[in-house]
Amino acid sequence: MDCGQERAPLLEALLEYARSSPCRFHVPGHGGGRGAPEDLLDVIGRGVFDIDATELPGLDDLNSPAGVIARAQELAARAFGAGRSFFLVNGTTQGLQALILAAGRPGGRVILPRNSHRSVIGGLVLAGLDPVFVTPAVVPGFNFAAGVPSGEIARAAGEHPDACAVLCVHPNYYGAVGDTQKASALAHAAGMPLLADEAHGCHLYFHQGYPAGALQAGADAAVQSMHKTGGSLTQSSLLHLRGSLLDGDRVFSALKLMQTSSPSYVLMASLDAARRRMALNGRDLLERLLQAVGKLRDDLAVIRGIEVFGPDHLDGDGIFDYDPSRVVVRVSGLGLTGRQAADWLGRRRGVYVEMADRDNIVLVPGLGVTREDCRRAALALKDLAAGEGRKPVPDLPGPADIPPPRVLMNLREAWFAASRPVRVEEAAGEACAEWVAVYPPGIPVVLPGEEVTPEMVNYLIRAREAGAGFQGPSDPALKFLRIISG
Ligand SMILES: Cc1ncc(COP(=O)(O)O)c(C=O)c1O
User: Fold this and answer.
1) Which of 8, 76, 355, 414 has CB atoms 3.0–4.6 Å from 272's, for a disulfide?
2) Is the whole-model pTM more than 0.90?
3) Digit-coded pLDDT (tens) for 12-50
4) Whose CA is closest to atom 16 on ligand 1?
5) Do domains 9-278 and 284-386 have the same CATH topology?
6) CB of 444 closer than 8 Å to CB of 437
């Protein structure tokens, strides 16, 4: 084991400061909790306030790290096999946007899946870069989007040799992984770095029973929501760089451009502690998780009417692998949408799932999940499945027959343009001002600046009638769509 991983330099320095009975004449103004609202103190405890400090002697500075933060980031880099790592306090969103800002110049292009997270689309708007979209594979039956087939990446890299980077999602929200090793080989052959949105994958590096991590599969950069699967606090993420295709100093400049000048020491300490625990005990924790989730998968496999995404659904390319700790359950065979099932499970059984779409629910069993939690979830699903008299969920038309939309203005121009709402039925022929993704498959039908077509309108109306969920539009029921005015 890497010596030094048993240390958490930032957390240790903060604890030492807190124990030194400091006379606090600095922000944050709660003064170590003495000036905090009492009810808040009761709920979250004194310890959080004790270490909620600022750039004091010995506590370093995230915007210019040379002491304990620099050492904590170095330990993170070593734990993940990166050349350089950065702590992020505004989630993976911040890291992806900084990577995009650092990777190209206005007017340049990035090759990326059409279902990239909205933070990536936001990054393109900020950087003035244009997308070259590649289409992900859709998992039959479950209907959610997985990774991008390598032929798609090869085609895009061939057609756009001047693109500044390729972006992949590894793994996605459903735990599906494309062939990232092949994607990195294709990107590198074209002289482009591979950027990985690894928001859901920081745990992959610590146990062989999971797909390889993005950096291990050849990515040049990976951004991870440590708060999603690594046990740190919400909003805390890591950005890792590897190799020399990306300029680390430029990435750091982009991070500084975007990040608060008052980064939370509590969030940063949580990253330091979570990295230490993963490096020291990650294998055991992930083994325990695999065991518990394995039993849950067994229990779910015998419930009639539902299906769990797993090894039988892989295709060796776009649906290359899956995270065994993420449990995607197709419930539409029960005559229920995923959202109805999630609602029932939460309200009636106190079992709260991470997300639901029209066909599926997605369970994210965390590192602390117990066998008992899994038993309770399986029992609740068994009871849900036993319900009778339901009508089949209507088939959702596929978006595949919609021709690729014309781009009337680029993302950045569209973002700055004035817009107004119109009824969806009246939107054909207009330039869209917002993005709309139908879940499943979660691939945007239209993005800002693209032309709304009659086929799209038809599909969106049928999707609305079939109970699909929408992401992106300001009207979540999608009666109205914002179009660019004038
Ligand atoms: C695939 C993907 N990428 C990026 C993000 C953004 O991560 P964060 O919430 O840490 O900013 C998310 C968040 O859910 C995500 O699902």
Assistant:
1) 8
2) yes
3) 999 999 999 999 999 999 999 999 999 999 999 999 999
4) 173
5) no
6) yes
